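Quality-control log, excerpt.
Job 1 of 2 completed; input and output follow.
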Amino acid sequence: MLRKTLVLLALTIAMVMASMAANTTFVGTISDDMCGRKHTMLPGKSDAECVRACVKAGAKYALVTSDKIYKLEGQSAQLDKLAGAKAAVSGSLKGDTITVTSVAPAK
């Protein structure tokens, strides 16, 4: 009985930890993984226009934070709306990729 209780407790803790990791929020600027921090591909165009053009050409959306650039997967329509803008991105992190569950303008 004690063994079953310990196993259930360990599984519960693991599920809570996994749930917490899945709900991390990152704040940064929505960009693309081709340009990253500097948008020089389309001189005279806004950062948002450059991001959209790069994504259309095959780049992935990215989140540029103060210390890192994360690739973003999922929620493309919401990411497109905030291209070039500061945003709060929630999702799960694996390596350098965030699987996005929600995106909102940063406050």
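Job 2 of 2 completed; input and output follow.
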Amino acid sequence: MSVARVSPGAKPRSRGHIEIPSETPETDLEIDGNPIHLTNLTKLFWPDDKITKRDLLQYYANIAPALLPHLHNRAMVMKRYPDGAFGKFFFQKHAPESKPAWISVCNILHPSANLVDFPVIQNLSSLLWVVNLGCIDLNPWYAVCDNADLPDYLHFDLDPTPGAVFSQVLETALLVRDALAAMKIVSYAKTSGSRGIHVYIPIVRGPDQKQVWSFAKAFSKELAAKHAEVITAEYRVAKRPAKRVLVDYNQNAWGRTLASVYSVRPKPRAPVSAPVTWKEIEDGLAIEDFRLDNMPERVKRVGDLFKPILAKTNRVKLERFL
């Protein structure tokens, strides 16, 4: 059970090109009419790849037109890496008391009865503010803030178990796609940016988070039973078979999050969680094909392949499967 409120925020936008200085450890900018102070710009966040915090911020400034609509009005669980991609990290839910007045918040009542004021990324200035705190990847809520219990999409996280190879993940993604298509459900894929593939389905809001989770669980279990040589839906690690791909339905549980589309991941070469076509999956691809250094150019070329996730039309009415 939760209640949610989002404070007023601007429409997602990014006006013009923002160039972040590269030869100074900190800088002050005015973006969206908001003053923002960026720090530790020369700090190496990926030492082996010579990628700095400034490079991370510049990536998010460049990708913002495609990214911001996917974050708008959604609570953000902050995963902070103050020492870079391979240093210690910590989760932060409450917006820090030092946040600027122009940062929107989403208040969600957790089962513990604590009201959590999550920050919300509404525009480029708030995006860069969150990244400046050391957030490498972005973890938004599955529902918008007017009702945090009613998701507007569900997904399957395809994760290889020990001994499995990435070609099995691609095979599993196609099996998920085809099983959904047989139910007349259109799905969209993105790389996780880590080891797997995420398959998303836009749904009409109505079913609560537990109902969405129940559908995902039933689907995953049935698919695993049909393709036991490739797939598992066993969530208990001790009983999970090796050399399989886990179709993880539990990431649809209330309060869970996944890295957003276009999120950079704290892995070597700074890979990005990239939307991909089913043809690309059929032809074979690699996680490292999509990185901080080449993703903005790809989006210029192919557009936002996850734009259908945001559309008001062609969403699945999940009630007919419950």
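Post-run check on job 2. The domain at 4-149 is CATH 3.90.920.10 (DNA primase, PRIM domain).
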